[in-house]
């Protein structure tokens, strides 16, 4: 049954994406940019509905009150394709820094460019990154919310942290709050797998880190905040969904955290 539900969901997920692009493309490109973003937001909501009805996976967002009323940077953990679109309905006017290869995909890439997403060659340095920073400041000065994954790429649940310093430079140059977000959709929608697992998980939006810190101090605080909250959420999700087959990284990290807790109690 798990395999059948997963196949059905994956089929409808991509059919939903392709059909919406084909049918709604004329409307999307005729509308002003910000109004046109209602179409991707509706697509995100429809995916949540499909996942709940077909796979049996639900989620709850905690901490919406922590989203600043002003412009900000969202800094979520990144584990799955799910978290690339999942929060769109709750963000007013998001902009992503993303790998440039995504903009080469027919239709999908055109949608990204209409929304003025910021492509980057992840292997580039110097002048390319200066241009990315220039574009980022322009978009954020126009009131948009930047979404950037501090680890740069998808990481399995419980994996060793591998943060990139680029977010500290953006924090320094934009002078806006940074909102850490922890979530473990990789337990339910694993990367490099076609299986989708039922259950219930949470997205935790943490209090913002205000602007003005030294970049090194900010970076250290962000990493500590994300990793501490992510570890706690991992334990919570495993306890709430005992049926889940844990990837090796998650099983190892859960065992380490339990051993630490046991040692603390004995001490």
From TrEMBL:
Claim: Acyltransferase is one of the keywords in the record: yes
UniProt KW keywords: Acyltransferase, Membrane, Transferase, Transmembrane, Transmembrane helix
GO BP terms in the entry: phosphatidic acid biosynthetic process
GO molecular function, one term: 1-acylglycerol-3-phosphate O-acyltransferase activity
Membrane-spanning parts: 12-31
Pfam families: Acyltransferase
Keyword rRNA-binding on entry: no
Domain (Phospholipid/glycerol acyltransferase) ranges: 72-186
Pathway named in the protein's UniProt entry: Lipid metabolism
SMART domains in the cross-refs: PlsC (SM00563)
Name listed for the protein in its UniProt record: 1-acyl-sn-glycerol-3-phosphate acyltransferase
Record lineage: Bacteria, Pseudomonadati, Pseudomonadota, Alphaproteobacteria, Hyphomicrobiales
């Amino acid at each position: 049954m798990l395999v059948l539900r997963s196949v059905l969901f994956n089929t409808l997920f991509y059919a939903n994406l392709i059909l919406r692009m084909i049918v709604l493309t004329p409307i999307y490109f005729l509308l002003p940019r910000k109004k046109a973003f209602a179409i991707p937001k509706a697509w995100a909501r429809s995916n949540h509905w499909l996942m709940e009805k077909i796979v049996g996976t639900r989620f709850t967002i905690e901490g919406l009150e922590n989203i600043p009323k002003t412009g900000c940077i969202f800094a979520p953990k990144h584990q799955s394709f799910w978290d690339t679109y999942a929060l769109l309905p709750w963000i007013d006017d998001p902009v992503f820094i993303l790998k440039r290869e995504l903009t080469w995909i027919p239709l999908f890439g055109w949608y990204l460019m209409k929304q003025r997403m910021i492509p980057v060659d992840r292997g580039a340095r110097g002048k390319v990154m200066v241009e990315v920073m220039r574009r980022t400041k322009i978009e954020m000065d126009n009131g948009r919310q930047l979404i950037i994954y501090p680890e740069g790429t998808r990481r399995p649940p419980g994996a060793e942290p591998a943060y990139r310093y680029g977010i500290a430079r953006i924090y320094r140059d934009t002078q806006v709050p940074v909102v850490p977000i922890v979530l473990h959709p990789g337990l339910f929608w694993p990367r490099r797998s076609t299986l989708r697992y039922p259950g219930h998980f949470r997205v935790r939006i943490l209090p913002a880190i205000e602007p003005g810190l030294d970049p090194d101090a900010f970076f250290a605080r962000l990493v500590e905040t994300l990793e501490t909250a992510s570890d706690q959420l991992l334990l919570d999700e495993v306890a709430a969904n005992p049926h889940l087959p844990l990837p090796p990284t998650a099983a190892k990290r859960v065992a380490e955290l339990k051993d630490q807790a046991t040692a603390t109690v004995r001490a």
